Amino acid sequence: MKSPGPFLEPAKMIVNGYHSGYTHANRLSNRDENSLGAQPVSSKVRILYLEDEKDLVTLVQLVLSRQGYQIIGARSLAQAKEIIEQERIDLFFLDLNLPDGSGWEMLDYLSQHIQYANTPKIIMSAQAMDPQRSAEREHLNNFSAVIGKPFQVNALIDVTQQTLRNARSSH
Question: What span, in angstroms and rounded, lies between the C-alpha atoms of 166 and 137?
Fold first, then answer.
């Protein structure tokens, strides 16, 4: 059986340590399948989901609000930039293909925004990732994980919780 690679294949994979390239992936093995109702790292975590497909934002809001997270949807780069000027955001979910640009542009913007330079970012995209392409290579250190679409709900919860735990332990 071929290895799924370092990205969420729509399953239980989490990607850490992009500084070492696309090769560091860990299976989530310590997750109890009955812990869907487990409390997140913090019940006040605010997540900005930059996604132009309203149904996906609604699905993520439904799933993660049950875990105690607050999801704020943005349908464009412009809207996301407005929101981050007004709201405190603890985690970003970024789609790569947007009507007014790309998730890569948002990564660049956030890395230059002092308040959000070290805030974790998760790429959520149906676009295949290729470390040989210059866009992916340029941004290897700017995101914590990649979730492929379509995704499994349990994987979304696991990656969100693990990313937030990792961010808290590094501060």
Answer: 22
pLDDT tens per residue, range 121-148: 999 988 755 555 545 545 556 788 889 8
Amino acid at 71: I
CB of 31 within 8 A of CB of 14?
no
Residue 140 token pair = 């290897």
Helix (H, G, I), strand (E, B) or coil at 109: helix
Tens of pLDDT, residue by residue over 42-91, are 458 999 999 999 999 999 999 999 999 999 999 999 999 999 999 999 99
Q: Phi and psi at residue 60, in whole multiples of 5°?
A: -65, -40
Dig out the tokens for 150 from the structure. Answer: 């379509």
Say if CB 109 and CB 81 are below 8 A apart: yes
- The Cα–Cα gap between 78 and 96 comes to 14
In the prediction, which pLDDT does 135 show? 54
Which amino acid does the sequence have at 148? Answer: G
H helix intervals, the chain:
54-65, 77-86, 103-112, 134-138, 153-169
DSSP-derived letter for residue 142 is S
